[in-house]
Design brief:
Elements (H helix, E strand, L loop, with lengths): L1 H14 L16 E4 L2 E5 L12 H14 L7 H5 L2 H14 L3 E5 L2 H12 L5 E5 L4 H10 L2 E5 L4 H10 L5 E6 L11 H10 L3 E5 L14 H5 L6 E6 L9 E5 L1 H10 L1 H4 L6 H16 L1 H17 L6 E2 L6 E7 L1 H13 L2 E2 L2 E2 L9 E6 L6 H17 L1
Helix pairs in contact: 2-12, 4-12, 5-6, 7-8, 13-15
Length: 386
């Protein structure tokens, strides 16, 4: 009975074109990957700077394993906090211009850990309607009152904050929205939080390493500073490795060490990864040509693409969302691109709102101009055909 119920649900997903499948990549992550023996151009990855298989980082991982072993062995608060973790936290805080930083296993765990540590039942959270699932789940787990405001609507957010009588208020927002590629109006968010005595948690998973001077992220991009900011960045996207961190005032970080359950009750990430990330930060800071090349490819894609029916959302980031609308058509187009040797994921509800199924095109410094031209030509051909 239980299995048949699950089987029926899975069959329904398949009929609706919503059943998800995994691809098996043979070899390293790169702009060109091998799947089922075929070489394909990948526009799927969040490896925005092309660092995931960088030889300097591969060598650093080997060195880290030799120096620190493979596993951390315990949680940070027992005996798992390695010198490499400690050095990386200091370097990350300096990198984003905030007093302290704290490592987490993933961005999902970081967001859960921050919100549940700082908000409780009598507090109030204010969230953009297009926030990442991790921020939404964090709000639910905290048991605080949750108010959602329309995407990027600062006027409505201001009204909600002004009406709140909660002792602790936290505004939750993606910095770069992962399915649209647009930026949060960070200066306006900071101003509202300062006016209404609120914290601001910014999830900069897709901006860290890409935006701002030397890849410092969205805070550098907008040149904003405030003790109310709690900054979350991930280390498995532009940084090319794995993990996440939260940065902010000393009191915030110390509170997370004492209260964040996703930090306290989990084994620390392998120190070899922290050792590797120390090198990754150096590459992000010094190899500015990667960000320049990425910006040129983004401009090339947007300038070359000429659409009649589909709609490209406005974005200055590597995330370029092409709205198709209908689920089956989006899946069909993604499959047709794969037949042409081009990987672009079909993003469907519930990840995005109903009626906005899309191709999520992720550009990387590892791509060439020829790769982008190939994608644009294939999209033009398919739009005329389908």
């Amino acid at each position: 009975m239980l299995l048949s119920h699950l089987r029926d649900q899975l069959q329904r997903l398949e009929v609706e074109g919503l059943l998800r499948h995994r691809r098996i990549v043979e070899g390293s992550q790169d702009a060109h990957v091998k799947i089922d023996g075929r070489r394909l151009v990948s526009f799927c990855s969040n490896d925005y700077l092309g660092l995931a298989s960088h030889p300097v980082l591969v060598a650093a991982a080997r060195e880290g394993a030799e120096r620190h072993g493979v596993g951390a062995g315990a949680s940070h608060l027992v005996i798992g906090h390695n010198l490499a973790h400690h050095q990386l936290e200091k370097k990350l805080a300096d990198f984003v211009g905030l007093p302290q930083a704290l490592l987490f296993s993933t961005g999902y765990m970081a967001n859960l850990g921050v919100v549940t540590a700082l908000a409780a039942r009598d507090d109030e959270l204010f969230a953009d309607k297009l926030n990442h699932a991790s921020l939404n789940d964090a709000a639910l787990l905290s048991r605080a009152k949750l108010r959602r405001y329309p995407h990027l609507d600062m006027q409505e957010l201001g009204k909600q904050l002004a009406a709140s009588q909660a002792r602790t208020k936290i505004v939750l927002s993606d910095a770069v929205f992962s399915m649209d590629g647009d930026l949060a109006p960070v200066p306006e968010l900071v101003a509202l939080c300062e006016r209404h005595n609120s914290w601001l948690l910014l999830d900069d998973a897709h901006g860290f390493g890409v935006l701002g001077q030397e890849g410092g992220g969205v805070l550098s991009h907008f040149n904003v500073h405030s003790p109310r900011i709690i900054y979350m960045g991930t280390l498995g996207k532009a940084a090319g490795v794995f993990g996440a961190f939260v940065a902010g005032e000393k009191e915030i970080i110390q509170t997370l060490i004492q209260r964040s359950r996703t930090y306290i009750y989990t084994t620390a990430t392998p120190p070899l990864l922290a050792h590797t990330l120390l090198k990754s930060l150096d590459l992000i800071r010094t190899e500015s040509d990667r960000r320049l090349r990425l910006a040129e490819l983004i401009a090339l894609f947007k300038n070359r693409l000429r659409l009649g029916h589909w709609r490209l959302l406005p974005s200055q980031t590597p995330i370029q969302a092409l709205i198709i609308g209908e689920v089956r058509a989006t899946v069909e187009i993604s499959s047709a691109l794969a037949d042409e040797g081009i990987l672009v994921p079909a993003i469907r509800p519930p990840t995005v709102p109903q009626g906005t199924a899309r191709l999520r095109i992720s550009l990387s410094a590892g791509h060439t101009a020829e790769d982008v031209e190939r994608l644009v030509n294939a999209l033009h051909k398919l739009e005329q055909k389908i």
